[in-house]
Each structure stands twice: as C-alpha cells, then as structure tokens.
C-alpha cells in the first residue's frame, strides 16, 4: 500500500504544564505537584501522531529563532516529519501555559508568537508542491486566512480537508465551503451551533450536506454524514491522568485513516482508541502511543 501523505498547516508550541491537585481560585496561591516542559501546539500534535501512525507527514508552519523553536525543529527531524515548509522568525516561538488538576482536566492559555506569522502564499506553495498529497489538516491556532488559502489550494488538487476548529473562533463561510470534514469537541460545537450536542436532532442540524465528527471526551465520538446519518463510537473506559492533546490525537489519527484508505467509521474508531490511550499519560505529544502500540489497536 502506498504511504498516506498528509500536510498539517498549523501551530507548533512548547507546553509549560503545571500539575496540581486543585487549580487555584482567583487571588489564591497553591502548591503544585509537578512542572514539565514538552512539545505541543495543535498542529504539531496532529502531525506527530499521524507520523506515529506511519504517515508521510509534511508540516507547514513557523517557529521562533530561539531555543524553543530549535527544540521543535529537532523533534520533527527525529520523527521524520518533513520540515521543508517550516520557516523561522525573530518573533518568539509560541507557548502554551497549561494547568492540569487531579481529574486530568486542563485549562490552557496559548501565546501564538511566530505561529501568527505563517504566510498564505507559503502555505499555498507547500500544498501545491507536495507529491502524492491526500489530506490537509488545519486548526485555529494560526490565522484563518492562511487556513483558507491552504484549503483552497488543497481542493484544487482534489485533496481532503479537515478542520479542527480549536480554539473556537467564528469561521468564515468561505472556509466552511472548502472544509470537507470539521471536527469540533463539545465546547466548540456549542460555540458554532449555539446548542449542546446532546440529541440526535441537534447533531443533524450541524452543517447539513457536509461531513462532521463531534468528539465527546470519555463518551467517544459521533460521525454525522452529509446525508444526516449518525454513527456513534464509544470510548474504552480508562483512568484519565491528563487530557491535554487527546483531541489532537483523534484528529491526526483520523487524518491518517482517511489518507491510508480507511472508511470514515474505521478511521474514527482508531482515533477514539488512540485518544483514549493518550489520556492515561501525562503531556500532549509525550502521551502519544508508539507505532507499535497503535498497530495493536488497528
């Protein structure tokens, strides 16, 4: 089988994570349990897990010309992620400040830094140039105009486009039009539609005529076809340690599944399994299973 070729147009950040039993209230200072630094950014997370699955991954983005940017570039190289379309900037690399409580739930503030300097023309050039490209993935940690440019170029090539609308921002009609799959979580779904994804009726109202998946955390995910048919996949029961990066794990694995010829339901099932495994470990990319582990889930 030919290799699944994926391009991720997106953010790459360093995660600065504090773990504490209880998250402080406003004005309160509490002692934490652990502090870690790790590789993150929604785009980079999705690229890394797709690479773990065995995909040929091309990353399109911008890193700071600093220690954090150097570390990310070296990590991409180690993982075999093609960085031909990764540029460098004098603006500091993006970072994410993350708090994780005893239940594994997180609160995150991102500072985009160099990620907001990705140029549309460079994204178009990348998408037009990558041989055998099947799937293009993006998120909302970069400027929406860049995603629109990349997806428009992707559709001209006949590629499948996947948008993870996180963190939430209002999306243009132009971007919706060139997005084949949109994958929000429950919070982003409510922001986009104005209602919680709690009933079949509400789910069927979301993007009629287009394919969507809503990730539901410990409840798994639901696929909404362009015809309005629903397919639910439940998640295996696990003890969550840290949910950071789990949604990205799902998106990256789903992209790999489509690019490698799986049907959407099977791609979704694998995505749920990998994401569920990731929440049992600390960190974002550091929590992702290896290719050998993923092979046992297929």
From TrEMBL:
InterPro entries: PfkB_dom, Ribo/fructo_kinase, Ribokinase, Ribokinase-like. It is found in: Cytoplasm. Its EC number is 2.7.1.229. It comes from the Bacteria. SUPFAM superfamilies: Ribokinase-like. Its cofactor is Mg(2+). Substrate binds at residues 13-15, 41-45, 141, 248. Its main location: cytoplasm. Gene3D superfamilies: 3.40.1190.20. CDD domains: ribokinase (cd01174). The active site is at residue 248. GO terms for biological process: D-ribose catabolic process. K(+) binds at residues 242, 244, 278, 281, 283, 287. Residues 6-290 form the Carbohydrate kinase PfkB domain. It catalyses: 2-deoxy-D-ribose + ATP = 2-deoxy-D-ribose 5-phosphate + ADP + H(+). Keywords: ATP-binding, Carbohydrate metabolism, Cytoplasm, Kinase, Magnesium, Metal-binding, Nucleotide-binding, Potassium, Signal, Transferase. ATP binds at residues 185, 215-220, 247-248. One of its GO terms (cellular component) is cytoplasm. Catalyzes the ATP-dependent phosphorylation of 2-deoxy-D-ribose to 2-deoxy-D-ribose 5-phosphate (dRib-5P), allowing the use of deoxyribose as the sole carbon source. PANTHER family: RIBOKINASE, SUGAR KINASE. Belongs to the carbohydrate kinase PfkB family. Deoxyribokinase subfamily. This is Deoxyribokinase. It comes from Candidatus Planktophila vernalis. The gene is deoK.
